[in-house]
Design brief:
The complex is a heterodimer of chains A (128) and B (483). Chain A is built from 4 helices and 9 strands; from the N terminus they run E-E-E-H-E-E-E-E-E-H-H-E-H. Chain A has helices spanning 29-35, 82-85, 89-92, 117-127; strands spanning 8-9, 14-19, 22-27, 38-42, 49-50, 55-61, 65-69, 74-79, 101-105. In chain A, strand 2 (14-19) and strand 3 form a beta hairpin. Chain B folds into 3 domains: 1-64, no CATH class; 85-341, Aspartate Aminotransferase, domain 2; 348-471, Alpha-Beta Complex (Aspartate Aminotransferase, domain 1). Chain B is globular, with a radius of gyration of 25 Å. In chain B, 42% of the residues are buried. The chains are: A alpha+beta (128), B alpha/beta (483). Chains A and B meet through loops of A and helix 14 of B.
């Protein structure tokens, strides 16, 4: 299970890549593995205001429909439109081409509440 | 003999072939029955088959079907019980099957009596004051129930109550019904055993709470022992309790939702009351309410005055939920079931359903992980965690069961149990049938350990093996086109 060291993680299995005031959000390799083949991704709309721990969209796999929770608060400035035609990008490249959206952080301090790679790996071990 | 390949009906026949020869037209042909602007200019490309080809085609397809009359169908949360044939017989009586819903009431007194008495029986079984037979199935019943709850709050001018609390172990229809009703679903986390977390419930209720929707026994097949405390918390906060009747087959004739504190109930006639389920049923999801909500029930309702039945309407009604009076043919079947079983019989069927589920659970506890160490109700939840080390998942086990001639149990539900296998045998099944199924499940557990490939590539004996569900979902082709 891949857990890149440079990312931050939520206990709901989303990842965040922080660059200055911007954060890219996606779901983790563990999450995509649990979901199985993803068949539809509902991404938020550009300009939508997200609140940390609240839903930002949904992912439908052959097994189930799951909510994706925003790990941070802020305004959506970019969404991954490729997911509409190629939802499999989430399975194939969860940390890369499977990104979901980019947010302009309204409360950067929230980043400190997220897990680092080591803590997230520990969480996975506990859940297993 | 079931043929391996069955062409589509469009691929059969020859141009000009007919299933029925109509006599020659011996009256003048009417002109312009359809206004010219609507009439098609080209002939519709309909299949052209002989009657024999047509019969063979559909008979072949029907042979591929699997139903309760074909074999064991332990689909959890679905109550695939046997549909006694006397119910079918009675529903086909010409005096019932040839009625029109707009007939004058004096010509359909018997039909109204069946509706009225079936309502009364369901009210007694569920502990409610009155019942509407209009909802066409369970989720439609949920929508009806939520509309009743909203009307109740609005009528008291309590307009802030828009939130519907739903535990995360609930059927997906619960939050969906709340959304369709224009209310907001609020999810609360359940305890590991699927029961309500009282602290989470207390934190969630408030002046905006319209209702709590609850299934009892829960979707994990376990009785919610804290139901009285739950009812008190919701009622103290000013909300109502909605009973999702999906699992009523565990409690019918033993305990009543009304006595547990529920205010609104739906029952699935196509589950608990032995009417056909699957293949379009059709379903039927009557909704019962306590006294305070009776005036909001859908219009019209049957009343009985000195032995004469007629329709009444209420000004405060939420309106119609169906064009006519519900799926009447199904209501007849359910009423026939209730009368032929009697009170004792209904209780006995629930007891046997619980006994059968516990027997399966006990017999499979060694071969499979059984996460809840207590008696279950009408269904039991196992998991495939013991098979995980061999790379075998719940899906593989379900597919392998097809090779043994069984319809697989419900899988991957409830969502809060990892790799869930949910078995609901119903009371209809004999011990021999259960033993056969248990043997097959044990054999599959053995195969998972010794020849995992066999399980992983199952099914081997069906007309098609694993379909590419991912491709079908990502790229659905829903229309046939000529090559």
């Amino acid at each position: 299970m891949k857990i890149p060291a440079e990312l931050k993680y939520s206990s709901d299995h989303e990842w965040v890549k922080v660059e200055g005031n911007k954060a890219t959000i996606g779901i983790t390799d563990f999450a995509q593995d649990q979901l199985g083949d993803v068949v539809f991704v509902e991404v938020p709309e550009v300009d939508a205001e997200l609140t940390a721990t609240e839903g930002l969209g949904t992912i439908e796999s052959v097994k189930a429909v799951s909510d994706v929770y925003s790990p941070v608060s802020g305004k959506v400035i970019e969404v991954n439109e490729q997911l509409e035609d190629a939802p499999q990008l989430i399975n194939e490249d969860a940390y890369g081409k499977g990104w979901i959206c980019v947010v302009e952080l309204s409360n950067p301090a929230e980043i400190n509440d997220l897990l680092n790679a080591e803590a997230y790996e520990k969480l996975l071990l506990e859940e297993a | 003999m079931i043929l391996e390949k069955q062409p589509l009906i469009f691929e059969l026949g020859k141009p000009g072939r007919k299933a029925v020869d109509l006599p020659k037209l011996d009256v003048p042909e009417a002109d312009n029955l359809v206004p010219v602007k609507y009439a098609r200019t080209q002939k519709a490309a309909l299949p052209e088959l002989s009657q024999l080809e047509l019969m063979r085609h559909y008979t072949q397809l029907s042979n591929r079907n699997f139903g309760v009359d074909t074999g064991f169908y332990p689909l959890g949360s679905c109550t695939m019980k046997y549909n006694p044939k006397i119910n079918e017989d009675i529903s086909r009586y010409p005096g019932l099957s040839l009625l029109h819903p707009l007939q004058a009431t004096e010509t359909v007194q018997g039909a109204l009596e069946i509706l009225y008495k079936c309502e009364q029986a369901l009210a007694e079984i569920s502990g409610m004051k009155a019942v509407t037979m209009q909802p066409a199935a369970g989720a439609h019943g949920e929508l009806t129930g939520l509309k009743l709850i909203r009307a109740y709050h609005r009528d008291r001018n309590d307009l802030a109550r828009t939130k519907v609390i739903v535990p995360d172990s609930a059927h997906g229809t619960n939050p969906a019904s709340a959304a369709v009703c224009g209310m907001e679903a609020v999810e609360i986390k359940s305890e590991a055993d699927g029961s309500i977390d009282l602290a989470a419930l207390k934190a969630a209720v408030g002046p905006d709470t319209a209702a709590l929707m609850l299934t009892n026994p829960s979707t994990l097949g376990l009785f919610e022992n804290k139901i009285e405390a739950i009812a008190k918390i919701v009622h103290d906060a000013g909300g109502l309790l909605y009973y999702d009747g999906a699992n009523s087959n565990a409690i019918m004739g033993i305990v009543r939702p009304g006595d547990m504190g529920f205010d609104v109930v739906h029952l699935n006639l196509h589950k608990t009351f032995s009417t056909p389920h699957g293949g379009g049923g059709p379903g039927s999801g009557p909704v019962g309410v306590k006294e305070d909500l009776v005036k909001f029930l859908p219009n019209p309702r049957v009343q009985c005055n000195a032995g004469v039945y007629s329709w009444i309407t209420s000004e405060k009604s939420i309106g119609k939920m169906q064009a006519f009076h519900g799926n009447f043919g199904i209501i007849i079947r359910a009423y026939a079931y209730i009368l032929s079983m009697g009170g004792e019989g209904l209780r006995r069927s629930s007891e046997d359903a619980v006994l059968n589920a516990n027997y399966c659970k006990k017999m499979l506890e060694e071969a499979y992980d059984s996460p809840f160490d207590r008696f279950c109700m009408h269904e039991c939840v196992l998991t495939s965690l013991k098979q995980k080390p061999y790379g075998i998942h719940t899906l593989d086990i379900a597919k392998r069961l097809l090779d043994y001639g069984y319809h697989p149990p419900t899988i991957y539900f409830p969502l809060i149990v990892e790799e869930a296998i949910m078995i609901e045998p119903t009371e209809s099944e004999s011990k021999e049938t259960l033993d056969g199924f248990i043997d097959a499940m044990k054999k599959i557990a053995e195969e998972a350990a010794t020849t995992p490939e066999l399980v992983h590539n199952a099914p081997h004996n069906t007309i098609v093996s694993r379909l590419d569900e991912t491709l079908a979902a990502r790229n659905p082709v829903v229309k046939w086109e000529a090559q």
